[in-house]
Specification:
TIM Barrel, 10 helices, binds NADP nicotinamide-adenine-dinucleotide phosphate
C-alpha cells in the first residue's frame, strides 16, 4: 500500500482488510463502499462519504452511471489520490446502464464514466442488468419500456463483445455481470472470450441465494453482494409488504448484542466470512462496517445460525424490466432453471 499520510486518526490500515484474489490473480478488497444514494442522499453527500471512507481505510468503491453521482464521486476520488493514495491501491467499479447495450454505446458509456470519475481505467466494469429495457431513474415499478425485451443471449453477447473490447483497449481491467441467473451465466461462460470475474448480486442473511452463490464460486467468479444490510434506505417503490428486514432478525440482533455491534455489522461480517464481497452503502456508519471487516470473526456456530435464517426474500425485484403483460417479477429470475421465454 502507498503512503499512510492520507489516513485519519481512527482509520483502519487498508493492508489489514481481507482481499479477494480474482481469476486473473488481481486483488480486490473484500468490502467496498456502495454509492447508490437511493434517491434521498444527494450526490454531494455520497461524495463526502467517499472522501471519509477513503480516509478511514476503504479502497473499494462500487459506482454506476445510473446513480447520477459519478462526477461528484470522481472529484472526491481525485482528492483521495492527491492526498497520497496510489491509484493502483484503489478498486473502482462502474456499470453500464440498460439503455447503453448497443456496441458503440458501451464504449461511449465507459468513456463517460471514466471522464466523470476522473480515471484513466476502471478496475471493473459490469453490465448492470441483463435486460436492455430502459426506464427513467426514479420511475414507478409499473413503468415499462415500450420496446422491452426478454433476455436474448445473442444481444447480450453483442454487448459482452464490446465489454471485452474495453479490456483490449486498456480502458477497464476486468469485466463482470450483475443480476444474472445460472442459466444466463452458463451461456455467457460458454461464449465469452473474456470470462466475467465478478457477478454482482443481492446477498444478505435473508437472501443468501445458495445455488447461484455456489455456481459462481465453482466457476471462479467472485460474488459481490449488494444490499448486504437489507437496504433499509431503499426507495419506497422498491418495497413490498412481504419484504423482511435482516437487521431485525432475532438471530442477527442476538449476535449483535453479544458482540456489542450494530446488527448491520453482523451482516457485513457474515458476508465476508461466507466468502462474498459486500458493498454496503453508508454516509454515517462506514467506519463501523470497515471495522467489522477486520475484527474477530463470528464463531462457527454463529455462522451456522445465520446460514439457517435465509428467507429467500429478494428485495430488488426488478419489476421495471418485465417485457410483457401479465408477468410477475419472478420471471426475471428464471425460476424454472431455464431462461424465461420471450
Ligand atoms: N448491481 C445492482 O443492480 C445493485 C443494486 C442495488 C445496489 N447496488 C449497490 O450496492 C450498494 C449497497 O446496497 P444498498 O445501498 O441498497 O443497501 P445496503 O448497503 O444494504 O444498506 C444501506 C443502508 O444501511 C445503512 N447502514 C449501513 N451501515 C450501517 C451500520 N453499520 N449501522 C446502521 N445502519 C447502517 C445506511 O445508512 P447510513 O447511510 O445512515 O449509514 C443505508 O441506509 C449500493 O449503494 C450500490 O452501490 C447494486
Amino acid at each position: 500500500m502507498g503512503t499512510r499520510a492520507h489516513l485519519s486518526s481512527n482509520s483502519i490500515d487498508p493492508a489489514s482488510v481481507p482481499q479477494r484474489t480474482l481469476a486473473t490473480g488481481a486483488s480486490m478488497p473484500a468490502i467496498g463502499l456502495g454509492t447508490f444514494g437511493s434517491d434521498h442522499v444527494t450526490p454531494a453527500q455520497v461524495a463526502e462519504a467517499v472522501r471519509g471512507a477513503a480516509a478511514c481505510g476503504y479502497r473499494h468503491f462500487d459506482c454506476a452511471s445510473v446513480y447520477g453521482n459519478e462526477a461528484e464521486v470522481g472529484a472526491a476520488l481525485e482528492e483521495v489520490t492527491s492526498s497520497g493514495v496510489r491509484r493502483e491501491d484503489l478498486w473502482i467499479t462502474s456499470k453500464l446502464w440498460n439503455d447503453k447495450h448497443a456496441e458503440n454505446d458501451v464504449i461511449a458509456s465507459c468513456r463517460q464514466s471514466l471522464a466523470d470519475l476522473r480515471l484513466t481505467y476502471l478496475d471493473l466494469y459490469l453490465v448492470h442488468w441483463p435486460f436492455p429495457n430502459f426506464h427513467p431513474p426514479g420511475c414507478d415499478v409499473t413503468a415499462r419500456s415500450a420496446d422491452a425485451q426478454s433476455y436474448i443471449h445473442e444481444n447480450y453477447m453483442t454487448t459482452w463483445r464490446a465489454m471485452e473490447s474495453l479490456v483490449d483497449r486498456g480502458l477497464v481491467r476486468h469485466i463482470g455481470t450483475s443480476n444474472m441467473t445460472i442459466p444466463k451465466l452458463r451461456l455467457v461462460l460458454r461464449d465469452a472470450r473474456i470470462k466475467p470475474v465478478v457477478n454482482e448480486m443481492e446477498l444478505h442473511p435473508h437472501f443468501q441465494q445458495p445455488e447461484l452463490f455456489k455456481f459462481v464460486v465453482d466457476h471462479g467468479i467472485e460474488p459481490v453482494g449488494y444490499c448486504p444490510i437489507g437496504s433499509p434506505g431503499r426507495p419506497e417503490r422498491d418495497r413490498t409488504p412481504d419484504d423482511t428486514t435482516p437487521t431485525q432478525d432475532p438471530v442477527v440482533v442476538e449476535i449483535a448484542r453479544r458482540h456489542r455491534i450494530h446488527p448491520a455489522v453482523v451482516c457485513i461480517q457474515w458476508a465476508i466470512q461466507r466468502g462474498q464481497t459486500p458493498i454496503p452503502f453508508s454516509i454515517h456508519n462506514y467506519h463501523a462496517n470497515l471495522a467489522g471487516a477486520v475484527s474477530e470473526p463470528l464463531s462457527e456456530s454463529e455462522m451456522n445460525e445465520l446460514a439457517a435464517i435465509d428467507r429467500n426474500c429478494r428485495l430488488i425485484k426488478g419489476q421495471v424490466f418485465l417485457w410483457k403483460e401479465g408477468q410477475s417479477w419472478e420471471d426475471l429470475w428464471d425460476p424454472t432453471g431455464e431462461i424465461s421465454p420471450p
